[in-house]
Design goal:
It is a single chain. Strand 4 and strand 5 form a beta hairpin. The protein has about 350 residues and is α/β, with parallel strands linked by helices. The N terminus is likely disordered. The longest helix has 29 residues. The protein has ten helices and twelve strands. It binds S-adenosylmethionine. S-adenosylmethionine binds next to strand 10. The site of S-adenosylmethionine has 20 residues, from strand 10.
């Protein structure tokens, strides 16, 4: 279902090609399909009111991982409020903001789940909450004095009650897709939606590290499939997607692939350059690729089988790249997450039985 083409979607939403292409005209051309290298507030102030259809971003969590990432919590939140006020101003009336955050830990090891603090900020701007999405991730630091953190959150807010939400392109398969009514007027008809079901508000995507083929030098990049789901359910081809904290450009890569326009900022020059390599699917002048996924896509497009003349800026640094390297796409990691949850669930039940027998 996610294979729908540009024109299938246009028909589906009753849009003519011309309407789609003409929608973004109120943003100056040099900001469209471009990542501005610099402070996002500067970019945001250059965007007209009600000019973007979707804002999806993951700001620095204030934990010292990336630039601008170790302010006292109140000044961090004030800074973020100014950015979100600008985002609200630039968002079209049917538009959405997806703000992805984790946990802030201060110097005394005091933990604050940031979504709790962002929720009232978004409400105070007049935005309307839709979902608090829990993004579960099976890997991370093993804590000794608390439960290990294994989820982050994505706050979804809309500007008005009349907002875009397209469920069909993001439905996930039903467990029993052929189930039929066995009595009553509808007897014999399918009892569930053959297109699939709503994916719900608990999302499982691997964090992009180590053996994930999308992994670059960035310590906190989005998985592409997470952004894909958000873009597909809130925009149509030709719409504009803004990410004020682009990092290595995941939002831009996915927006471009789905025929949306992108626009955004990133303060770190190296990340902007990596983002541009990912978007153009080209190596840099030293034949470095930012990640295995970009190399695989490039090799497929160019029909290259031997990639040993290329290098990676990160994955298996120093080793000769191979298209068969053990770094996997998101589908693989997703299956592993489910297997792991089932394994832990099954084994915890055994443990409980063992304990009961011993008692
Ligand atoms: C959590 S990361 C975003 C990663 C991104 N989602 C991706 O997939 O690559 C936050 C990014 O914000 C950037 N940043 C920090 N302060 C900024 C500012 N004032 N303006 C623009 N970017 C900034 C950091 O350099 C970092 O790359």
């Amino acid at each position: 279902m996610e294979q729908l083409t540009f024109f299938d979607l246009a028909n589906h939403f009753g849009l003519e090609e011309e309407q789609i292409i003409s929608s973004p005209k109120n943003i100056s051309n040099n900001l469209l399909n471009n990542i501005s290298c610099g402070d996002c507030l500067k970019l945001l102030r250059n965007l007209p009111n009600e000019s973007v259809d979707l804002i999806v971003s993951s700001p620095p969590y204030n934990i010292g991982k990336v630039e601008n990432d170790r302010k006292p919590i109140e000044s961090y939140l004030n800074w973020q409020k100014n950015i979100l006020a600008e985002c609200h101003r630039t968002l079209k009336s049917k538009g959405s903001i997806f703000w992805q955050v984790g946990t802030y830990v201060d110097n005394n090891k005091y933990h604050i789940p940031l979504d709790i603090r962002f929720f009232p900020i978004l409400e105070s701007l007049g935005m309307i909450p839709r979902n608090r999405i829990v993004w579960i991730r099976p890997h991370g630091v093993h804590a000794k004095l608390k439960f290990s953190g294994r989820y982050e959150t994505i706050l979804w807010f809309t500007k008005t009650m009349n907002y875009n939400f397209f469920l069909d392109p993001i439905k996930v398969p039903q467990k029993y897709s052929n189930k039929k009514y066995w009595k009553g007027e509808k007897k014999g008809e399918l009892s569930c939606d053959p297109l699939g079901k709503n994916p719900g508000d608990i999302w499982a995507f691997r964090n992009v590290r180590h053996n994930h083929e999308e992994d670059t030098v960035h310590p906190a990049q989005f998985p592409e499939d997470l952004v894909r789901r958000i873009i597909l359910c809130t925009t149509v081809p030709g719409d504009i997607v803004l990410d004020p904290f682009m990092g290595v450009g995941t939002t831009a890569v996915v927006a471009k692939r789905l025929n949306r326009f992108y626009c955004g900022a990133e303060i770190n020059e190296e990340y902007v350059s990596i983002a541009n390599q990912r978007i153009s699917c080209q190596p840099d002048s030293n034949l470095n690729f930012p990640n295995l996924k970009t190399l695989r896509e490039y090799a497929k497009k160019k029909g290259v089988n031997d990639v040993s003349t290329y290098k990676f800026t990160r994955q298996r640094k120093g080793s000769i790249p191979s298209l068969k390297s053990r770094a996997f796409p998101e589908e693989h990691h997703n299956r592993e997450i489910i297997k792991r949850i089932e394994f832990e669930a099954d084994n915890s039940i055994d443990n409980i039985f063992d304990m009961l027998i011993k008692e």
